[in-house]
Amino acid sequence: MCHYHRGPEQSVTAPAMSVAAPALPPISILMYHQVGEFSSPQKHRASFCHVKRFTAQMRFLKRYGYNVVSLDQAVAALFHGQPLTGRPVVLTFDDGYRNFLEYAFPVLSRHRFPATVFLVTGRIGQDSDWVRRAGRQAATLMSVAEIRDLSARGIGFGAHSVTHPRLSQIRTERMREEVQSSKTQLEAILQSPVAHFCYPYGDYDPAVRDAVANAGFQTGLTCIRGAANAADNAFEIPRKAISYGDSLAGYWWKLHMKHRRKDPAG
User: Please, are residues 200 and 215 in contact by the beta-carbon 8 Å criterion?
Assistant: First the structure.
């Protein structure tokens, strides 16, 4: 479940929305977690996408001419005035599950689609222990070697904290360490700058948002629903969650109709 705790506003160093942003087409940043072969989950359905449905969804995007762009391209259009045409879609995957490599990447590669994976840096090569602590089955996360290999093949990576806590609910010092260290650790692995952060559980408040900006990230991605154009700033970017039960009709509906910003219940 995703949470945003709206508290007293603080200064955020995010760039202002480009004056051209209102004229952009709606940009759909899609949020996936695990992709693979699953029996129908009864709970947390947005955490799973069956590979057959994922394959159909990517084929749909290709066949009907959607403009699948990188997160960098979308951010450049939203906040820096770069042009972006067609029906833009960005593909993001939270947590860094190994089944991304096994099931999602071959499909993405077939269509030459870019994607960004958000990694929990303290759990790389291990499993999603935060899921197990919640009473659900943990899954294996990608290793350093696998991440580097995917990076060399064009997959983008962002930070998703060190241990996947609810950042607004931990002590300020630890919160800042989770944010800053995830950047430092991931840059050491990739040997390149890391620009994007994704809030675990979508949980943040103004202090967390500002910590992400002050750590040197360029963006913060949320669980707020809606088109990315609805962002107030670069550190509160909405996404659209893709759920296990989404048919192609439901997928189309999210791409074309679910643009208005919808904050999750806190």
Answer: no
Task: Please give the pLDDT value at position 17.
Answer: 44
- Residue 15 falls inside a structural domain: no
Which of 34-48, 161-175, 244-258 is least confident?
34-48
Q: Domain for residue 1, yes or no? A: no
- In angstroms, rounded to a whole number, what is the distance separating the alpha carbons of residues 157 and 190? 9
For residue 237, CA distances in Å to 11, 128, 160, 209 come to 17, 24, 14, 11
Task: State how many domains the chain has.
Answer: 1
Centroid of chain to Cα 121? 15
Per-residue model confidence as pLDDT tens digits over 103-146: 999 999 999 999 999 999 999 999 999 999 988 889 999 999 99
The radius of gyration of the chain from alpha carbons, rounded to an integer in Å, stands at 17
pLDDT digits (tens, 9 = 90+) for 142-195: 999 999 999 999 999 999 999 999 999 999 999 999 999 999 999 999 999 999
Task: Scan for tokens 């996404």, then name that residue.
Answer: 239
CATH number of the domain to which 82 belongs:
3.20.20.370
Q: What is the DSSP string of 87-118?
A: SEEEEEEEE-BHHIIIIIHHHHHHHT---EEE
Please provide the DSSP assignment of 141-197 as one string. BPPHHHHHHHHHTT-EEEE--SS---GGGS-HHHHHHHHHHHHHHHHHHHTS---EE
Q: Model-level pTM? A: 0.92
For residue 40, count CB atoms less than 10 angstroms from its CB and return exposed for 0-12, middle for 13-18, buried for 19 or more: exposed
How far apart (Å, rounded) are the C-alpha atoms in residues 134 and 51? 25
- Determine the structural domain holding residue 181 and report its residue range: 27-256
- Which residues are paired to 157 by β-bridges? 117
Residue 18 lies in a domain: no
